[in-house]
Structures are given as C-alpha cells and as structure tokens.
Amino acid sequence: MTFQSLIHMTILGIIVALPATKSFAASDETASPNIILLMSDDQGWGDVGFNGNDVVKTPHLDAMAVGGVRFDRFYAAAPLCSPTRGSCLTGRYPFRFGILAAHTGGMRVGEITIAEMLKKQGYATGFFGKWHIGWVKPDEVGTRGFYSPPSHHGFDEYFATTSAVPTWNPTITPDDWNSWGGEPSGPWKGGFPYVHNGHEAKENLSGDDSRIIMDRVIPFVEANQAQPFLATVWFHAPHEPVVAGDEFKKLYPKAGTTRKNYYGCITAMDQQIGRLRTKLRELGIEKNTVIFFCSDNGPSDGLTQKGVASAGPFKGHKHTMYEGGVMVPACAEWPGKIPAGTSTDVRCSTVDFLPTVASIVGNSMVRKASRPIDGIDLMPVICGEAGKPDRSLFFGYRRLHNGIDGKAIISGDWKLLQEAKKDGRMRLFDLAKDPFEKIDLSKTLPDQVEILREQLAELEASCQRSRDGADYRY
C-alpha cells in the first residue's frame, strides 16, 4: 500500500461494544498462548515498509504484517510516550491513571495490568526496554515522578530503563549530542541506565540498543518455552538520541548523516524483531504465540520538521493532537489464528491490548470489571467477525504549568481536537472526507462542535473520577 492510495480509502467508525461473535480464546491446539507486546519509540506511521515507505528497510515487520494483520488506523492513547505506555498495560485512558505526560508520574499499584492478569493464570511475565511509567531505581530522586518499577506491576523478570537512552552505546552520550542526558562522550545519565531485576546492569551494554534488549528477551523466551509467557518488549528506537551502527548506516549510502542514523536505527530494531520471530520458529512455538507491534506516538517533532521522520500523508507529529501525532504503525501476527494478509481500517487503539489479551486467554476480567475499561477486544475486528464499530476514542496530554492541555475525541467520523499549546483552540474535522485534516469545520458547524465538546467533557469527568480514586479501594 502506498501513501497515495490512502487518499481513496474510506475511514470506518469505531466500536464501544461488539455484538456476540465466535470466541477467539485459546483452544486445545493453542492452549494458553504466549503473548508478546512489541513497541517502538517515536516511530511515525510512515516509517515502515508495510505502510508504503520504500526507503526504510523493515523486512521483518513487513513480513509480520503480511503474515497477520496490518492496522491502517491504529491510535496511541496520547501523542507522547508515558501516557501511551500506561494505556497499553491497563486498557484505560491515561487521564484515568494519572500519567498525563512524560516524567509526570508513575504507574499506580492500584491499576491492574496485563502482567498482573496473566500472572494469576500461571504465565511467566517479563519486561524488557524502556519503562517510562515510573523510576526503575529506588534512589532515582527527581522533581517529577516516583519509584514504580515493572516488578510492582506483575513482571517477574525485567531489564529496564526509566526513560530514553542513545540507540547505540546506551551508556555513553553521543559525541554530537548537546541536549539533555549527559555531556558529549561522557556517561549517559550516570553511565548505567539499565536495571535488571533490581540491580544495576553493567555488562553487555555496548553497540546496538535493540540488540542489547533482545539479548535479554531471547533467554527469557527459551527459559519459559514450556509454559505460557508474556514478553513486553519496548524498544528505545528510534527515539533521540538516535544513532545507528556503521553496518546499518551503510544500508543507506545516498542518505545524509541524520537519515543514515534514523533509518539505520529502525532497520537495526527490525533485525532484532526478525531474530525473535526466528527463535519462536526454532522452538516450534510460533503457532502458540501472538505478537502485537505498534509505536507509542507519532514521529519526533524536530526530525519530522527536517523531513527525516514521517507520519506518512497525515498532519502533525509527536506532541500534536492531529492524526500524525496519535496514529501509529501497527500489526499483529498469530499463525493459524489471524488470517495472513489481513488488513483493517477500523480505528483501534493501545487501550485495546488488555481486553484483547483477556479475550485470547479466556480471562473474564474485562466483563466483570467494576472499574472503567476503555478498550475493546480486537480479535473480532481482526477476523472480520465484528459489525461496524460504534465508540468514541479519547486522546490527550497535559502539562498545565506551560498551559499545555491537548485533547481530542473521535466519534464516528468526526474529530474534535484542542491543540496542545497555550490557548489551544478547538478544531473540527470530518475524517471520512478529510483524513488529512486540511479543512477546519469548527466555525461552519458549531452545533457539531458542541455535541463533541459535551462528549469530551463527559469522558474527562469520568477520567477525573478514576484519577481521584473512585476505582481504588482504600
């Protein structure tokens, strides 16, 4: 599919409650399937081959999309990192659990995560990569956030950083880096940003960061091949500082330095995803393993403005409420369960992971939940068993000290957004006719604005109640 072909696509609606369909839970042949959740960092919708990019090399992700399902309209719950990550684990909007932006909180132990749900069903649970929903070191005192490592949220094994690291030699600040994190050529955030099961990791930390992460994932998979497991793998690539090794930069001889690093970093991550898929096949467990992949938000502001990173034909980038800020590349693979060559333009979201996994493993948590769960089971959508979706999706992030209060709602084909900047104005778009958000209809259709504004206010109020403690026992 090329970027140009998207112009002719019709965007479908969304679901709040699916009609009764056949069950996609584990059968005798796929008892307690393994779950792998892969996520890249700041990778734009247009930064993969399966979305039409014919420059960046992502053969393994492309193979995943061909071998399973490609999501053409998949949304992150926020246009930046931490809120989206929390939504992946809880099935809830970030405004419910109180992580409203990066470095502005930590995951509350009162939240129920995918890992906690699966652990109760006998799953081995592992987390690998960028956590960013709480500090991973108990003495990591800062002005924002708090200590809340993966082990507090259902993960037996973890190899994690609190936040971003260079994508090559993650313990060392790149020579040409002149921003946060460390002095050029000096140690990155103290020099040992990874924590492995409560202890600062100090070995095998040189070279490609995606490979460093996968070097911990593979042994976890091998050790748990005889029992069901959850592996949550959140890469740092291609978040800045984005650096690629020479072998990957050489794949892009005609590109400039910035592009060599960006494209090469993505290809290096893709290679490690291929390594994981190969290992599953070597162990003979690929048919009992479902893999989901997505990015956490749109592409980097600066790299998009330089024409390096890409949201495809969509408007916006990271930190914006436009489609390019929240719509991300996504696919899933489950041989024998997800028909190969499937694609869907139903609007799906990171809040859908928990309900989908619950359905797959036969867990009734979502149906019996006393707290709001914002996501839906995607398996009927993926397998074409669902009717037309009919739900609203809510996005947002907030840093009120800078006057930043970005939010958006999609209801049917209508999208109302408030720009994520001081005095951000409301804008209205008809995504069916205008998927690239070129025509603001807010002044010509004030009644429609008011309808969506009321829906947005109701969602915000519900999230506020959750955030203030309505969903937790005291």
Helix-strand blueprint:
Layout: E1 34-40, H1 59-67, E2 69-75, H2 81-90, H3 94-97, H4 114-119, E3 124-130, E4 157-161, E5 195-196, E6 199-200, H5 209-223, E7 229-234, H6 246-249, H7 257-282, E8 289-295, H8 301-305, H9 323-326, E9 327-333, E10 342-344, E11 348-349, H10 353-360, H11 365-368, H12 379-382, E12 392-399, E13 404-411, E14 414-418, E15 426-430, H13 446-470
Parallel strand pairs: 1-7, 1-8, 2-10, 2-11, 3-4, 3-7
Antiparallel strand pairs: 2-9, 4-5, 5-6, 8-9, 12-13, 13-14, 14-15
Helix pairs in contact: 5-7
EC number: 3.1.6.1
Signal peptide: 1-25
GO molecular function: arylsulfatase activity
Number of structurally distinct domains: 2
Average predicted local confidence, pLDDT: 91
The count of DSSP E runs of length 2 or more, i.e. the number of strands, is: 15
What general outline do the C-alpha atoms trace? globular
Q: What class would the helix/strand composition place it in?
A: alpha/beta
Q: Give me the CATH fold name of the largest domain.
A: Alkaline Phosphatase, subunit A
The CATH H-level superfamily of the largest domain is Alkaline Phosphatase, subunit A
Architecture of the largest domain in CATH?
3-Layer(aba) Sandwich
Give the SSE order as H and E letters: EHEHHHEEEEHEHHEHHEEEHHHEEEEH
Largest sheet: 11 strands, mixed
| Amount of helix | 25-40%
Q: How many whole angstroms does the radius of gyration measure?
A: 21 Å
Q: What's the N-to-C terminus distance?
A: 51 Å
Oligomer: single chain
Provide the β-strand percentage band.
Answer: 15-25%
Instruction: Give start-end ranges of low-pLDDT stretches.
Output: 1-23
Question: How many H/I helices?
Answer: 13
Question: Which CATH C-level class of the largest domain is it?
Answer: Alpha Beta
EC number: 3.1.6.1
Family: Belongs to the sulfatase family.
Keywords: Hydrolase, Signal
Pfam families: Sulfatase (PF00884)
